[in-house]
Design a protein that fits this description.
7 helices; globular; mainly alpha; about 170 residues; three-stranded antiparallel β-sheet
Length: about 170
C-alpha cells in the first residue's frame, strides 16, 4: 500500500512538472516560417514585405471594440436560443460571437477586398502566421496592439498562438 501511495505521489509530481507554467522559447530560438508572397494564402499577414504594418491592421486597431461587442451579442443570442441547454447555448454563443465579431471587424476595415489589397504576404495556417509574427516582430513596442488587432480579424489565431510557438521548429 505504501508503495502504491509513493508511486502515486511521484506520478503527481511528474505531472505537475509537465503542466507547470507555459514556456515559450525566445524569438531568436525559433525558425521563422516563410510567408507566401501575395495573397493566395488563407490568412493575410499583418506585416508587409517591407516590415511595416499593413493598413488593415491600423484600421483593425481602431475597430477592435466592435469585435468584442459582436462576441457579446453572439453569446447572448446563443444563450437565449438554447436557454434550457446551457452547455450547447454557450458553445453556440461563442461560435456566433466569433463569426459576428469577425464580420463586424472585417466590415469596419473596409471588407475582405481591403484586407487583401493592403497585404502582400499571406499564410496557409494561423500557426504559421503566429510563429512568423513572433519570431520577426515580437520585440516591437506595439506588438501586443498589432496582435490584438489581428485577433479581431482572425479570432481563431488567439487560441492557436501559444501552442504554435511551443511546437515551432527550433534552430
Amino acid at each position: 500500500m505504501k508503495l502504491v501511495k509513493a508511486g502515486a505521489l511521484v506520478a503527481v509530481a511528474l505531472m505537475m512538472t509537465a503542466w507547470g507554467p507555459v514556456k515559450i522559447p525566445a524569438p531568436s530560438e525559433l525558425v521563422s516560417p516563410t510567408p507566401i508572397e501575395g495573397t493566395t494564402g488563407k490568412y493575410m499577414s499583418p506585416f508587409t514585405s517591407d516590415g511595416v504594418t499593413a493598413e488593415w491592421v491600423t484600421k483593425s486597431m481602431k475597430v477592435k471594440a466592435s469585435s468584442a461587442i459582436g462576441g457579446m451579442a453572439g453569446q447572448y443570442a446563443g444563450q437565449k436560443a438554447a436557454e434550457r441547454v446551457p452547455f450547447v447555448g454557450g458553445m453556440l454563443g461563442k461560435s456566433l460571437g466569433q463569426k459576428a465579431g469577425r464580420s463586424m471587424a472585417l466590415q469596419s476595415i473596409g471588407g475582405a477586398e481591403f484586407l487583401t489589397s493592403t497585404s502582400d504576404l499571406s499564410f496557409d495556417s494561423v500557426q504559421q502566421m503566429a510563429v512568423f509574427m513572433y519570431v520577426n516582430y515580437s520585440t516591437r513596442a506595439d506588438y501586443q496592439q498589432i496582435l490584438d488587432a489581428t485577433y479581431a480579424i482572425y479570432p481563431e489565431l488567439q487560441p492557436a498562438y501559444t501552442p504554435a510557438l511551443q511546437s515551432a521548429t527550433r534552430k
